[in-house]
């Protein structure tokens, strides 16, 4: 719906069985509980005049205008049990009373527990497609495609080699942040040569995925600039695949992530391959909580090593001013067993619960914005450079 300070040529809305059409200088009024009789054979008064009077009464009540002062022109057309009603917009500026605003009319979405999140700007925003670039449903690890066999082999290697001790070694090594010093945008440009072999939905350079995600979110949540930047940088850790950063194998950089130090939940993709993981033979790691306790907090849990954890370390240690929800998205956006399947929630604390709501919003754009339609990098570059300057130092240690 257009904002009030705009002058749309035509506004159109369907409320129950009414289709209300307003030309320029007219406004849509929500008429609840107004409904035409199911049978078109009813007499004229019941079919047309009665519901019309309900519209007029509703407008009079909610605009605080006297019934007799409403100037309107109604043209009623019956089309398959629907009515098109043209109503002249009253001059609300003359009214002294303030109209009550309901939660659903604001740009705020309130989740359980009272945690507020912004509602997307328009219902005409980003729409999730049903199929990926290869003609299959997203995250379909069983569909036959040119990349499917490679994807399953990737998860076989990942599930065998990602152990608690391996992650501890990686965090110690890469926690030094001594591999390079560069800006966020310089790192983005390094991703032009990176293709994620674990992803069954995309075979374009990673810089395109970053911009596709960021631009889709920017369209629907224009005021949340930290979320735009989070989308841009969330996969920058994939530079670990490049020689300058150790040229780690794909299984140590990309793919779904999962906790170590506790039992492998069956919601993990290709769970069967965990049988060959050495941690599977360690009794301390084979219970639901493992070495942790319920409500321990995900920040204290050892996650499988990869680009998520690495970029989280880079952002945090370089003093980013992104909110905690941004850092949570960066570290757990590949943690699909949690935010898609609902597993491992017993390890979360209260802050994790709140941040997870943002992650679920982000995931729609991370997963479904992958497209063959490429973003004009030079066109959007100035905007994202301004965000990196706002939330990060000019140069970061990597």
From TrEMBL:
Q: What is its main location?
A: cytoplasm
List the catalytic activities from the record.
Answer: myo-inositol + O2 = D-glucuronate + H2O + H(+)
Ligand binding (substrate): 139, 196-198, 238, 255-256, 333-334
Which keywords does this chain's UniProt record carry?
A: Ascorbate biosynthesis, Cytoplasm, Iron, Metal-binding, Oxidoreductase
Tell me where in or outside the cell this protein is found. Cytoplasm
Which cofactor does this sequence's record say it needs?
A: Fe cation
Q: Which residues bind Fe cation?
A: 209, 234-235, 307, 333, 366
Which pathway does UniProt place it in? Polyol metabolism; myo-inositol degradation into D-glucuronate; D-glucuronate from myo-inositol: step 1/1
As recorded in UniProt, its EC number(s) are 1.13.99.1
A single GO cellular-component term from the record reads: cytoplasm
State the coiled-coil residue ranges: none
Write down what this protein is called: Inositol oxygenase
This protein's species is Canavalia gladiata (Sword bean)
Q: What is the lineage of its organism?
A: Eukaryota, Viridiplantae, Streptophyta, Embryophyta, Tracheophyta
């Amino acid at each position: 719906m257009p904002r009030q300070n705009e002058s749309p040529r035509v506004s159109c809305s369907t409320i129950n069985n009414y289709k209300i059409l307003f030309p320029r200088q007219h406004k849509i009024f929500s008429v609840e509980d107004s409904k035409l009789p199911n049978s078109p054979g009813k007499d004229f008064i019941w079919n047309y005049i009665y519901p019309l009077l309900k519209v007029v009464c509703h407008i009079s009540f909610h605009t605080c205008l006297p019934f007799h002062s409403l100037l309107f022109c109604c043209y009623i057309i019956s089309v398959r049990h629907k009515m098109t009603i043209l109503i002249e917009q009253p001059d609300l500026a003359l009214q002294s009373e303030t109209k009550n605003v309901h939660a659903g009319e604001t740009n705020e979405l309130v989740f359980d527990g009272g945690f507020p999140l912004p509602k997307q700007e328009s219902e005409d925003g980003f729409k999730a497609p049903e199929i990926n670039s290869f003609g299959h449903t997203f995250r379909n690890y069983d569909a036959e495609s040119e990349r499917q066999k490679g994807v399953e082999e990737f998860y076989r290697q990942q599930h065998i080699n990602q152990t608690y001790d391996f992650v501890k070694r990686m965090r110690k090594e890469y926690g030094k942040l001594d591999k390079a010093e560069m800006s966020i945008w310089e790192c983005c440009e390094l991703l032009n040569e990176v293709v994620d072999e674990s992803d069954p939905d995309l075979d374009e350079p990673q810089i395109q995925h970053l911009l596709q995600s960021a631009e889709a979110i920017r369209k629907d949540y224009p005021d949340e600039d930290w979320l735009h930047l989070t989308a841009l940088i969330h996969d920058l850790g994939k530079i670990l695949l490049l020689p300058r950063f150790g040229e780690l194998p794909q299984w140590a950089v990309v793919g779904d992530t999962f906790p170590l130090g506790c039992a492998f939940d069956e919601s993990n993709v290709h769970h069967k391959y965990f049988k060959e993981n050495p941690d599977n033979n360690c009794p301390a790691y084979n219970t639901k909580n493992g070495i942790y306790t319920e409500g321990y907090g995900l920040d204290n849990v050892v996650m499988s090593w990869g680009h998520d954890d690495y970029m989280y370390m880079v952002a945090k240690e370089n003093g980013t001013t992104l909110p905690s929800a941004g850092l949570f998205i960066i570290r757990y956006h590949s943690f699909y067993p949690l935010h898609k399947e609902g597993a491992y929630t017993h390890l979360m604390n209260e802050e994790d619960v709140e941040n997870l709501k943002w992650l679920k919003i982000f995931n729609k754009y991370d997963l479904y914005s992958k497209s063959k339609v490429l973003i004009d990098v030079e066109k959007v570059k100035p905007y994202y450079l301004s965000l990196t300057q706002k939330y990060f130092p000019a140069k970061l240690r990597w």
